[in-house]
């Protein structure tokens, strides 16, 4: 009986040197975008729970717009659409980082809001009753507790954003999937190459998972 | 600051509070003088917790006058500066302890003295250790709240409030969330504090404790002070029918 399964391990391993140049691009877009997204998320997450309505509604609009539209459309809009508005081109790397930043920023806003709102009202009351100002209560009591609760969902968002960068092959930025496509165009070994591409994403996301689990464990040690 | 011992530290005049349509406090008149221990009793929902939470501005009121430690607390929470000053002079112990779970016992106690009073770490630590000893918590200073029993947590919460050297202490049902065997240790610490002359306003269901430590007992019914007086007269000879029926319900079981 003939074996129909044909997986060419040599082709798979042979593709590694051609795929590796994509890794730094994937990491740069992911972590560059997430770093900015984190600050956007904190800013808009806190605006979202402001007692002032005129601070709240821009945050609501921001979250709804960027959470409610596909990230692929967002990056296409930034890369192809915005230059028509600005009159100058935007390079693919910048567009990719910007897309991850605004997209993850919207989700992180919700994570921040949820984290802060999850802290029992009594924590704030106890802080105020001791004479702490509202900002001191937030800084020393509410935020440290909220941040601990935010670590698991933030890790989740990090992993999602890393995988989202694979979509940016469409704007020609040389990340992992793009490198794979280029290589397959000359070798026609789609099975092996996409397998290796998937494996590389898995290595990146798995490493992040392990790091986060350690961070979480250390963060919870005091509780 | 008001150092005249004969001047009331709390002065409420015709205080009214609404939660939406609900009229929680109705024309409350109340004066508390330094050194006095006042126990507030009443059924749940009578407004007794709301009453003491108005004193440090955790609840705002809408109508009337409120003066605490010589500062006016304005209606609708519109007195931010006075409010923070009052809160540094008025300590509070909560039903649910509300210790800060991410800070150790000693950090719970030193936070406010260092950040609000501007004490050095060394001074704050010294005070914390002295207070922990006073409430009977030793060798636990570096544990976290979750590692302590409920009774220990509440005593730490008391030490935390006392570290600010308050002129007035508020207690909002301090033993209601405790297992029965731990109520005694918290009441003991409060009894001690009363003996030392602290001005205290206590909302509690512990009638025996109220009778023993209170200078004055206030009975609140549906947001109104129905009756008040020395514990002996109020417990043994209540004048008002509502007080009688409330006491017969809580004292006979």
Automatic annotation (TrEMBL), chain A:
It comes from the Bacteria. GO terms for cellular component: ATP-binding cassette (ABC) transporter complex. InterPro entries: AA_ABC_transptr_permease_3TM, ArtM/GltK/GlnP/TcyL/YhdX-like, MetI-like, MetI-like_sf. It is a multi-pass membrane protein. The chain crosses the membrane at residues 25-47, 59-82, 193-212. It is found in: Cell inner membrane; Cell membrane. GO terms for molecular function: transmembrane transporter activity. GO terms for biological process: amino acid transport. Keywords: Amino-acid transport, Cell membrane, Membrane, Transmembrane, Transmembrane helix, Transport. Belongs to the binding-protein-dependent transport system permease family. HisMQ subfamily. Residues 23-212 form the ABC transmembrane type-1 domain. This is Putative glutamine transport system permease protein GlnP. It comes from Vreelandella rituensis. SUPFAM superfamilies: MetI-like. The keyword Membrane applies. Part of the binding-protein-dependent transport system for glutamine; probably responsible for the translocation of the substrate across the membrane.
Automatic annotation (TrEMBL), chain B:
It comes from the Bacteria. It is a peripheral membrane protein. The keyword ATP-binding applies. Keywords: Amino-acid transport, ATP-binding, Nucleotide-binding, Transport. Its main location: membrane. The keyword Transport applies. It is found in: Cell inner membrane. GO terms for cellular component: plasma membrane. GO terms for molecular function: ABC-type amino acid transporter activity; ATP binding; ATP hydrolysis activity. Residues 229-253 are annotated as: Disordered. Residues 10-247 form the ABC transporter domain. Belongs to the ABC transporter superfamily. This is ATP-binding cassette domain-containing protein. It comes from Vreelandella zhuhanensis.
